[in-house]
Write a structure and sequence with these properties.
This protein is of the alpha/beta class and 260 residues long. Helix content is 40%, strand content 25%. It has a single domain, classed as P-loop containing nucleotide triphosphate hydrolases (Rossmann fold), CATH 3.40.50. A six-stranded mixed beta sheet has the order 6-7-8-3-9-10, sandwiched between helices. It is globular and about 65 Å long. The chain starts with a strand and ends with a helix. It binds adenosine-5'-diphosphate and magnesium ion.
Amino acid sequence: MPDLEIRNLHVRAGEKEILRGVELTVGGGEIHALMGPNGSGKSTLANAIMGHPGLEVTEGQIVWNGADITGAEPDERARMGLFMAFQYPVAVPGVTVTKYLRTVLNAHRTARGEEPISLRDFRRTVEAAMELTRVPEEFSRRYLNDGFSGGEKKRMEILQLALMKPALAVLDETDSGLDIDALRVVADGVNSVAREVGANMGLLIITHYQRILHLVQPSHVHVLYRGRVVREGGPELVGELEAKGYGWITDEVDAEEVAA
Ligand SMILES: Nc1ncnc2c1ncn2[C@@H]1O[C@H](COP(=O)(O)OP(=O)(O)O)[C@@H](O)[C@H]1O
Ligand SMILES: [Mg+2]
């Protein structure tokens, strides 16, 4: 079963220390929500897990299935089954969704030392992924520079998730205003993939808002603030945050830091 352990992680970007001792463990079959006010370091943590070259780990470790990957290159991590829903390149003239997905899939296969997928197998795989995530068939023929809506970009991410079936998926739900229908498509897709893959995938859903967490039920909830996980709980924490906001947590942490 896949297992991600983040131990006392300190991360800097330039002169700024953004993460200051993050502790977080995500196991297979678990759905974790990472919440927190804007600017608390959520995206930085996602990027650090993926090995973003602009970030410097100054202390602590990222351990994946027992192996220390703190210094591993991003493509090495991808090969080990770590996945982050990256936005597609903004303008790739003449590249359809299908062609792009095939390129991505083959890049992963090559990295793992496998042969490129045959056209026939790819069609089958992508059809299954589209069915699972209920992405309409015509979407696959769209061009990447067609100007996707926020909802379509998310749909693209979910389709990649269904195609890759990674051992760990990090979904950084940028606070792009998805309407409820788009949100439901994304949530249904995530739930379908999670159900199908089961214990072979851990999921880390990063969000400032509670909305998606009503549709994708997390098993664990963590609140990040000023570069640390300051609260943890089960799904009930989502409702509590919804009712009370972040203030009751951040005030307490601010007071502790002043006292320290
Ligand atoms: N590359 C960077 N260089 C300097 N500061 C950064 C960089 N990336 C993020 N930050 C800062 O780190 C803090 C946390 O950012 P981020 O991880 O994006 O937070 P969140 O995703 O929780 O909103 C913010 O104050 C942000 O301005
Ligand atoms: Mg962010």
